[in-house]
């Protein structure tokens, strides 16, 4: 499967092929996740995650407190879609947390990854995970709020083939969707196909993890369009390509 072309039909076929009926352990974690959310706590998935394939396969990733890392199941599904497109790409991991997505991308052949997170603890753990997996030369870690990172580099020549976003749940405020809309629109300007509209071939993909019931389809997105969504209990992961 290739994301170099707008092939929503192929994506739907892949989605049905990988449909799984029973994930008891995953659903148990999701119930804990929901309970903490209802108690106005920052949800935490009580498990470890690992690199699922590539050079650092099976490396256990240390997770900062109060984070919701991508589960192994989510990563396998996402990278099944990306497949060969991940090789030699530049990746931007926003709200990086443990750096799980970026580390998976490096393990599978990405050329370089920029990790952005404002948390001091996340910054330390990302650096530790990168060092342990041996990807220091290919990784850049920036301790910054995402909006500050965008403001600082928006007019620079920085561009990325793949952008992954996993914002904190508190930012998915259904009464203030304009904030998330603005963040997504500004972040998408770093995609290679938005930075350089004349580029031929692969123009980039943006992947967003969000609450399943969040009205992401109601956002007015300037540069990207959704081509598919995958559901994981209370969460969804949506794929966007340059319009």
Task: Summarize the model shown.
By secondary structure, this protein is of the alpha/beta class.
What would you say this structure looks like, in words?
The protein is of the alpha/beta class and 243 residues long. It is built from 8 helices and 9 strands. The protein has helices at residues 8-17, 24-38, 72-82, 100-107, 120-133, 146-153, 177-188, 192-195, and strands at 49-50, 60-61, 90-94, 112-117, 139-143, 162-165, 205-211, 224-232, 235-242. α5 links the parallel β4 and β5 (139-143). The longest helix has 15 residues, at 24-38. Mean pLDDT is 86; it is low at 40-46.
Q: What are the SSEs and their pairings?
A:
Elements: H1 8-17, H2 24-38, E1 49-50, E2 60-61, H3 72-82, E3 90-94, H4 100-107, E4 112-117, H5 120-133, E5 139-143, H6 146-153, E6 162-165, H7 177-188, H8 192-195, E7 205-211, E8 224-232, E9 235-242
Parallel strand pairs: 3-4, 3-6, 4-5, 6-7
Antiparallel strand pairs: 1-2, 7-9, 8-9
